[in-house]
Amino acid sequence: MSIRYISQKLAQQIDEELMSASGAFSLDQLMELAGLSCAQALSKSYSVESHKRVMVACGPGNQGGDGLVAARHLHHFKYKPTIYLPKPGSKDIYKRLLKQCENLNIPVLKDVEEFKNELKESDVILDAIFGFSFSPPLREPFDQVLNAITSTTIPIVSVDIPSGWSVTEGPQPLYTEKDNTQTIKTFEPDVLVSLTAPKEGVRNFKGRHWLGGRFVPDDLAKKFELNIPEYTGVDQVVELPSAKQSSEQ
Amino acid sequence: MSIRYISQKLAQQIDEELMSASGAFSLDQLMELAGLSCAQALSKSYSVESHKRVMVACGPGNQGGDGLVAARHLHHFKYKPTIYLPKPGSKDIYKRLLKQCENLNIPVLKDVEEFKNELKESDVILDAIFGFSFSPPLREPFDQVLNAITSTTIPIVSVDIPSGWSVTEGPQPLYTEKDNTQTIKTFEPDVLVSLTAPKEGVRNFKGRHWLGGRFVPDDLAKKFELNIPEYTGVDQVVELPSAKQSSEQ
Q1: Which of A136, B88, B113, B145 is the most exposed place for a label (fewest CB within 10 A)?
Q2: Does B223 touch chain A if contact means CB atoms closer than 8 Å?
Q3: Is residue B23 within 8 angstroms of chain A, CB to CB?
């Protein structure tokens, strides 16, 4: 039985169930494990020897929170992360996660020009900008951010859904808030870290594909027929066959 | 420079600093990472093939919370944990951690006789009863629990400080609350998982010794001269030379 690609609605429902009174998880716990999964997947894809300098691009929502946790773990894994966080989320948890990174002296950039410059000095980018709640149009400065990521030649590791992609349809032409005739091309990441279960929009993703979030209760996985493959050892991520490999079989 | 064995007072101070406004960690985060460390250390010491059935003995405090998190991760690592929790802690976090385990259908025992019986069917015990805040006398049913653990022949993995040991002095004769002439012998675990930094009382521990808690900020480690050894890869634990190995060198 192959893994299920879930809809935006089901992804939201699973998160809600995990954090309900009966699921009993806190956002702190789930974000810690999700961010750790992302850091592990990056580490298993690009070694610290060859790809030490990691640009961690964070959006204002939970996806950005996962990015902040990942940046902290990457620091402990001996990478040199730099955080780009143009619009810090207002929730208390994001402030705490940011402070934890600042305490490790991880540089935090706010300005998009600084981001573009620093990107030239980076070995790999962790894209934690938009998650499964994203819908167009693109707001500033994320049009410039996505364009810069699309233009870069360094590898891109996207968290859950590549930023700008439709959660349902995958890559899509994007328009910006100030100009609905200007379309922006979305990028194809080299590596994807799906959290809990992959989303419908990444069904045809051709790159290296990891699944993270080794906390989904068996009963919940069964109820939603997620068909999660077996993780091995103490790993927090498991590699999925890519769409390319699957179609070749 | 060898690792520092810290006092009860310093252990408390480090925890307080991590969870202060400036440290910015939540108890949920630290307990998640500490419990994950314990599960990883057990897994690296006793494989799931040879030691599938794990008795996780939990005390009423934070140490028991670490045990509940470890039990959940051990379940995901494909072990078959059973939890013994005679006195559930009253904090909300312990209730949530317990519920998360119940949602995985992990058996939870409350009765000491059931614990003794189940111990006979177990392959390894994770001792998460008392942590660095423990001081005698022993209260019921923990006198019986410690006696049962001392009598068992299966391997014992202790969290942070073997239950009953003095945080400062190590193994000590214990007396019970109801009878201060009756002394109880403490046990010597096979494996120890020190969290954040090893405590003074385990300086002469002869077994296999892991350090967990890969979240201590560099500045804090430097300030307290912890001399934490380097973790490798994405591991959440690092093995320390045991007192036996050190004295042989």
Answers
A1: B113
A2: no
A3: yes
Domain residues of chain B, as ranges?
A: 8-248
Selection from B158, B234, B139, B170 nearest residue A35 by Cα: B234
User: Which residues of B make up each annotated binding site?
Assistant: 62-66, 127, 131-137, 160, 163
Cβ neighbours of B242 (radius 10 Å)? 17
Cβ contacts (< 8 Å) between A76 and chain B: which residues? 214-215, 231
What span, in angstroms and rounded, lies between the C-alpha atoms of A97 and A248? 42
pLDDT tens track, chain A, 249 positions: 799 999 999 999 999 999 999 999 999 999 999 999 999 999 999 999 999 999 999 999 999 999 999 999 999 999 999 999 999 999 999 999 999 999 999 999 999 999 999 999 999 999 999 998 888 889 999 999 999 999 999 999 999 999 999 999 999 888 888 877 778 889 999 999 999 999 999 999 999 999 999 999 999 999 999 999 999 999 999 999 877 655 544
Q: Which fold has domain A8-248?
A: Rossmann fold (3.40.50)
In whole angstroms, how large is the CA radius of gyration of chain B?
Answer: 17
Question: DSSP state, A110?
Answer: -
- B88 reaches A (C-beta below 8 A): no
